Each structure stands twice: as C-alpha cells, then as structure tokens.
Amino acid sequence: MAKWLFKSEPNKWSWDQQVAKGEVGEQWDGVRNYLARNNMRAMKIGDQGFFYHSNIGKEIVGIVEVCAESHPDSTSDDPRWDCVDIRAVRPLKRPVTLAEVKADPRLADMALVTSMRLSVQPVTDAEWQIICELGGIEP
Q1: CA-CA distance, 68 to 21, in Å (whole number)?
Q2: Chunked in runs of 10, what are the mean pLDDT values of the chain (139 residues)?
Q3: Where in the sequence is the domain holding 59, given as residue range(s)?
C-alpha cells in the first residue's frame, strides 16, 4: 500500500477535528493543485498517510487512512477537482517537527522538504519508517 502526507492548517482543520469524525472520516476537500489532486486520484482504500499541521506547529501529529477513494469534491462545482475521505488511525506519541525532518539527512529527499507547498504528498516506505521511529511508534 502507498503512503502519503496530508497537510492542514490546524486553525482550519486540526488533528483533533479529524479524530472527532471517527470511523466515518471526512473528505479531504479544497485541494486546488493538479499534482495534489493526482496524488489523491492514485490513492486506494487502506492507504495510510501522515497528518501534518502546516503554518501553525509545522509538525506531523498523527496517522490517517483513506476510507473512500477519489470522488468529486463537494466544495467545488468544477468537475476537475476531486478528493478522498480519510479517517484518523492514531496519534504519534510525539509530534515530529518540520525542523527535525529537515535536520535528518535520511529525509533530505522527502517531499515535505523538497516540495514544501504541495498539500498532498507521497511518502516512501523508508521515510514512513523513519518518521514513525521519530514519532515514537511502530510503523
């Protein structure tokens, strides 16, 4: 299964709000970048991703799971925009900050470092392992 990273400004949609949605999850809407949209179109049910607080906090705080594959984004009348639904799986024991990610040479090629503005990013298996270790959880 593929791994991903979902960015959200916590004052707009936080980890706590995601957790509150429970098993039903929530659509990851409002994405208006073609590459991020294409990443969501590639997702399958059961794919996991990191939940990243951008702008405020700048840290990976939890793990989410895709619970509905790509479908039209209900926040847009434009048929070009799709989204997936995700649900919270578990928090990291310790958030992993952007500064930590940038300081770790093993993560130098991670999209979070090289494509910082991209709101939905792929994560390699090796990167997943490292972030989980830094966050104090088993992958």
Answers
A1: 14
A2: 97 97 97 97 98 96 98 96 98 98 98 94 98 96
A3: 3-134
